[in-house]
Structure prediction request, 377 residues.
Amino acid sequence: MNITNPFSFLRLPILLLAALLLASCQNSGRKGSGLGEVLPWAQLPGWQADQHAQAWPALLKGCRKLQSEAEWTNVCTAATSMTDVDNITARAFFEAHFAPRQLFGDGGREQGLITGYYEPLLQGSYTPDARYRHPLYGVPDDLLIVDLSSLYPDLKGKRVRGRLEGNTVLPYYDRAQIDGEGQPLKGNELLWVDDRDAVFFLQIQGSGRIQLPTGEIIGAGYANQNGHPYVAIGKVLIERGEIERKDVSLFSIRKWLKEHPNKAQELLNQNPSFVFFTLREDVDEGPIGSMNLPITAGRSVAIDPKVVPLGTALWLSTTYPDANNAPLQRMVFAQDTGGAIKGQLRADLFWGAGEDAERRAGLMKQQGALYVLELKP
Prediction:
């Protein structure tokens, strides 16, 4: 207690009263956003049915970064010392070290949007020709990243991207300028691919694989972005009456672009956001997420880090994107972010690579609930 503050003796009663009011709100039905009270594990829908050992690799990958943080040290030390972990052992470990609390949205909303993403396979070459003519760009040398958080704490985590023209900082080039005739990024190409639309969707997914003419496969991962806001072209098509809302998916948008070649570039330009990439040779462990660690198919999700801190363990309760709407309930880890992943009840499940991953990710726009699995003190 700070004895130099004449009102410090009031702190404990006030904090106690606040805690009691919070508990009262939680027990009388939620009307606000945030975390609910700690729940028994049996109240998590599908908890007993999950293959908990399948979440273990994602936990271990996260521990590479988190084990240096005080609250994670004991958990990660214990996890990394264990071998031959099966479903029963993994479930007991999670129950011993974590406590589930449901995440609520505005007005006490329990359901949010759960989408999916995957690692697409593109055909590319280090040398452009008549087939390979659509560039994949690395981070340009003239991209400025301005961080003013030291002067303005409200801007913490917000970085402005731009470019210098004389002594003036201007917004960086948008998609229409980069893909336009001026080619302001000429010379920053990493390689070229054979499908313009595939480059666009690669930017949305954030990472992918490139197969070279030799058969070698390399990885392409997110390196930076031009600073412009992300605009969903599916939403644009809905607003223009081109596709009905219920029919919008990766596949319907891709089909529209193929069927309207004269309008395609104009539609793509409606999303001014542009992603720059870096290449990697090792593609076996998975693409690199926002924690600068490989993410795990089926067990890593992209979230809004303003709501859910990176590294957080979560319980996801949603449905598969198929006609049966079968339950999809599993433990996942918040290990990535995305330009379109904003808000309290928002998650993007990484499905991995391959045709099945593409199909599920391309169709997924499910309603679902999220539970934060808090570390026990």
